[in-house]
Specification:
535 residues, alpha/beta, Rieske Iron-sulfur Protein, 4 domains, 6-stranded mixed β-sheet, 11 helices, 20% helix, 33% strand, binds flavin-adenine dinucleotide, binds FE2/S2 (inorganic) cluster
Length: 535
């Protein structure tokens, strides 16, 4: 039990608009008040994921959506509904006396784990999670949140506790965050408090028939149910000279904290970086290195970056944004060879141009890494097919970058390599491992960060699959929402500086959403923003 502090007045009831989250202070503690027909409730005001101010989020159908990366919470009790937060909101006691709203500045006890019946708590069973990244960490948190009472073992090849990989191409190469300060995904005491055994080692084999995992060729673990979430590894392009140790020493393929440490060390020395590949990671790193005043050249075979994802016009907009900030492009070409020339590298392009640089970053895509799976069919790209509960085979589930899933009834299975998707899938798998009813399907979402601007993307569609593209706002001012639609139905949304609109759209896209309805929601969100700006 938490000892409570005296109730103190934080707001007047008349000043609280129904359905509009409001931030107040109770002494040192920032509190979010939410008023609706059932009264007033109080929660922590900052998102437990990365600290976004939740008063800038949106409330839709009883769900509070975080403005930054769309974690979603139940407004009745602060419970977590959608990642990338992995825990619910702290709750505070509230009393309303006349027009005074009073809260206690001490948080109430956290919500208890879900009460599952004896059989569902699986207290005599062993669950294994392979991979301690986005999905693996979410699975551990979700299994305990949903009431799993048995033995829980997390096996990961990295020595660091689960951390936020997405910072590695943004704040770390930008020099704004030291690699050792990258945020952990769960509080330091989580694994001890929740009795999660963390095994450090490489899974060499998972035998789906025998239900047995071999770690580092020696230790074995028998499981009753397992979730595999080993993610991806960078794809090495076919470039002559990449095997030369003198070239490798100054070449980074960015996936984990060790890679980020190396990149940080190279960037510290300044100079010229060549980024191979105009992928999200490639261009995020380019933007981050420009922040550190390095000279940056991006080399890629495409004519326009991101044209396959967002079309030519928006792709050209991203290219302009990079050029205006000093990044140089060599497009429609490829790197043929790299060699070490004294203290520098020579990067030879098709067409005879050679770029002299101090180091190279390769961002040419990733491939799933699940070779250790035995007794399971893998697809040509190395991924595995999952059903709607993320099941691969009896007692075996997969989530994250390796999972080819259907996003919608009858849709083709695809692998989506996004952080929040990995964690949504892990939560879905955790429910299935406990025999719980599936939650409502979630809409894919990702964010990408260039020159201090965050771009949000909801849904999934590739160029050529939409027949209508409509932009509300201004691309030039990086203040816009673009709808990608087919037959009048919105398939995906890209936006910048429109957090509240994206939060509302992400919720609305759980159902079919027409372009007209989407436009109305965007207008409503903008009116709402204006009203709040006016106080
Ligand atoms: C630098 C970078 C920036 C990114 N930025 C964004 C972003 O801004 N937004 C976004 O939506 N997505 C982003 N992504 C993509 C996102 O990080 C991935 O889609 C997500 O991490 C996939 O989650 P996962 O759990 O499948 O794999 P991971 O998070 O990669 O975790 C897999 C874990 O499994 C471990 N592992 C692998 N094989 C074994 C084995 N055999 N035995 C034991 N352990 C093993 C790995 O060491 C790793 O710790 C980024 C990716 C990178 C690399
Ligand atoms: S800060 Fe809220 S989801 Fe990331």
């Amino acid at each position: 039990m938490t000892a409570s502090t005296p109730m103190q007045k934080v707001a007047s009831l008349a000043g609280l608009r129904s359905g509009v989250p409001t931030r107040v202070q109770a002494g040192e503690t920032a509190i979010l008040l939410i008023r609706d027909d059932d009264g007033v409730r109080a929660f922590g005001a900052d998102c437990p994921h990365a600290g976004a101010p939740l008063d800038e989020g949106a409330i839709c159908h009883g769900r509070l959506v975080c403005p930054w990366h769309k974690a979603t919470f139940d407004i009745r009790n602060g419970a977590l509904l959608e990642p990338p937060a992995l825990q619910g909101l702290p709750r505070y006691s509230v009393e309303v006396e006349g027009d005074d709203v009073l809260v206690s500045a001490t948080a109430d006890d956290p919500l208890p784990a879900a009460q599952v019946d004896g059989e569902n708590s699986r207290k005599n069973q062993t669950f294994a999670i392979v991979g301690g990244g986005a999905a693996g960490a979410a699975a551990c948190a979700s299994l305990r949140e949903f009431g799993f009472a048995g033995r829980l073992v997390l096996i990961d090849a990295e020595t660091d506790v689960p951390y936020d990989r997405t910072a590695l191409s943004k704040f770390v190469p930008a020099g704004e965050l030291k690699p050792d300060d990258v945020y952990p995904l769960l509080p330091d005491d989580f694994f001890g408090t929740h009795h999660v055994e963390c095994l450090r080692g490489q899974v060499m084999k998972l035998d789906a028939h025998a239900r047995e995992i071999t770690i580092d060729g020696a230790q074995t673990l028998r499981y009753d149910a397992a979730l595999v979430a080993p993610g991806s590894v960078p794809k090495a392009p076919n470039i002559r000279g990449l095997d030369d140790p003198a070239v490798r020493e100054r070449t980074v393929m960015l996936r984990n904290l060790d890679d980020a440490r190396r990149l940080d060390g190279l960037a510290d020395k300044g100079g010229h970086a060549v980024v191979i590949g105009s992928s999200f990671i490639g261009l995020e790193v380019a933007s981050a290195l420009r922040n550190r005043k390095l000279q940056v050249t991006v080399v890629a075979p495409e004519s326009t970056p991101f044209a396959a994802q967002f079309g030519d016009a928006i792709g050209a907009h991203f290219q302009r944004l990079h050029e205006q900030n000093g990044t140089t492009f060599r497009l429609d070409t490829q790197v043929e060879a790299i060699d070490a020339a004294g203290a520098q590298l020579s990067v030879h392009l098709q067409g005879r141009e050679t770029l002299k640089c101090d180091f190279v970053v390769i961002g040419t895509g990733v491939q799933p890494t699940a070779e250790f799976l035995k007794g399971v069919d893998r697809n040509d790209d190395g991924g595995v097919d999952v059903d709607e509960s993320m099941r691969v085979a009896d007692a075996l589930y997969a989530a994250g970058d390796i999972a080819a899933a259907r996003f919608g009834p009858g849709a083709q299975r695809i692998r989506i390599e996004h952080w929040r998707v990995a964690q949504q899938q892990a939560r879905a798998a955790a429910r299935a491992m406990l025999g719980l009813k599936a939650a409502q399907a979630a809409v894919p979402f990702f964010w990408t960060y260039h020159y201090d601007k965050q771009f949000d993307y909801v849904g999934h569609v590739r160029a050529g699959e939409w027949d209508q593209q409509l932009t509300v706002g201004s691309l030039d001012n990086d203040d816009f929402v673009t709808l990608f639609a087919r037959n009048g139905q919105v398939l995906a949304v890209l936006a910048c500086n429109r957090e509240r609109a994206v939060a509302v759209l992400a919720e609305a896209m759980r159902e079919t959403l027409s372009v007209d309805a989407a436009k109305n929601l965007i207008d409503d969100a903008q009116r709402d923003d204006a009203k709040r700006d006016d106080g």
